[in-house]
Amino acid sequence: MPVNGRFSSLIGHVYEGASEAVPWQAFVEALRLALDARNVIVTLHHADDEGSDIYVMARVPGDEIDWAAVEATYRAELMMDDPLRPDLMEPGQVSLVDRSTTDLKKHAIFEQIGLSQTLRMCVAEPSGIRCWVDVIRSHKHAEPLFTEADLALMHALTPHLSRALGLYAQLKRQETEKAIYESMAEHFGLGCVLLNDQGEVILVNRVAASIIEQRPGIAVNKQRLVLSDRAAQLALNDAIAAVISARWQTDASQGGNLIRVGDSHDRLVGLLVYPAPLLRYYRGGQSPCVVVHLSDLSASLEALRPSQGHSVSRIAQLFNLTRQEATLALLLAYGNTLAEAAQEMGIAEIAARNYSKKIYGKMGIAGQADLIRLTLRSIAFLR
């Protein structure tokens, strides 16, 4: 196939590869077929001091070579003196190595696994992330050596691979940030339900799913957030409609609306309906329009229970308390009186009073009210 024809068949895979679950999996197979190669490898991470690279590979059917063992041999015997090892290559560099190499160790490996020639290309994106593309031909191929047309194809792909790698880096940064924010929301026990501009549910995070599963009065039915309490449902519908209406009018001043489901004698859940951030070039369809935060208010103080072992150790570490002092501090912060806390701990009230004085001194506070305030401010570290 001419260079232009092969290039056209590959360019879509280059850019689509940045968003694939296994990045560039379709590209490596398409490139293998285009260059009649036995193997194509895209290495996404290389470190000299690690046991193996992170890569994506396409293989010719029936390939039984243990490539992990080949890599281990390369790292142990060849990498140190290899002028084409990944960290020494310059972006845009395309190099060839064939079985006629004068390096006896490399020649022996080529013979052992039946390689005729390998082509390696280094690609980089502006922030500094690099990847390497290796194309391997077997001596059994009709054309065991790469041609000028093959090299021209690789050079033509280089700038596009660089741009696609930049997109990949940006996507991965955004995915990492998203994962961090999601873990923060989950850490605080904050559920999140995203709705589109039709009020339909498009995403439910793990905390929200758990609250919905455990709270009979809340459900997702036919892509709608449904409350069994009629008054609460009407309030929720009005809040969602207000956010959507304000969004169509690009009114960024629309605040959040709070809705309560249940009461103090039941499982109390709070819902906060808020507009999703408005992105200028991403509207309609599955773009988030409304955020509904859910919080199980009846469970919000679980982290303060001394039965939560990690809470005791963390409050002790945070304020330099002994384990007994930390246990008492949590009992008092949970709302127990000094007598109730002493009974819970199985100690005399006078002993608990002496512990409390030490606690207040170490924490620099005056009494139980300050203890509750300071502990609640520290709850992020106790969950």
Structure description:
This protein has 383 residues and is of the alpha+beta class. The chain has three domains: 3-175, 2-Layer Sandwich (Beta-Lactamase), CATH 3.30.450.40; 188-299, Beta-Lactamase (2-Layer Sandwich), CATH 3.30.450; 302-382, Arc Repressor Mutant, subunit A, CATH 1.10.10. Helices cover 45% and strands 19% of the residues. It has 13 helices and twelve strands. The protein has helices spanning 3-16, 25-34, 67-77, 104-113, 148-187, 206-214, 230-248, 309-319, 323-333, 338-345, 349-363, 368-377, 379-382, and strands spanning 39-45, 54-59, 94-98, 115-124, 130-138, 190-195, 201-204, 218-221, 224-227, 257-261, 269-275, 290-296. Strands 2-1-5-4-3 form a five-stranded antiparallel beta sheet, sandwiched between helices. It is elongated, with a radius of gyration of 31 Å. The mean pLDDT is 85. This is HTH luxR-type domain-containing protein. InterPro entries: Sig_transdc_resp-reg_C-effctor, Tscrpt_reg_LuxR_C, WH-like_DNA-bd_sf.
Number of strands: 12
Give average pLDDT, whole number: 85
Query: Within the largest sheet, what's the order of strands?
Result: 2-1-5-4-3
Anisotropy-based shape: elongated
What separation lies between the terminal Cα atoms? 61 Å
Strand percent estimate: 15-25%
Q: Which CATH class of the largest domain?
A: Alpha Beta
Structural class: alpha+beta
CATH fold-level topology of the largest domain: Beta-Lactamase
**Number of separate structural domains:** 3
| Unreliable spans | none
What is the overall number of helices?
13
CATH superfamily of the largest domain: GAF domain
Q: What would you say the CATH architecture of the largest domain is?
A: 2-Layer Sandwich
Order of helices and strands: HHEEHEHEEHEEHEEHEEEHHHHHH
Q: Helix share of residues?
A: 40-55%
Domain HTH luxR-type: 318-375
Organism: Thauera terpenica 58Eu
Protein name: HTH luxR-type domain-containing protein
GO molecular function: DNA binding
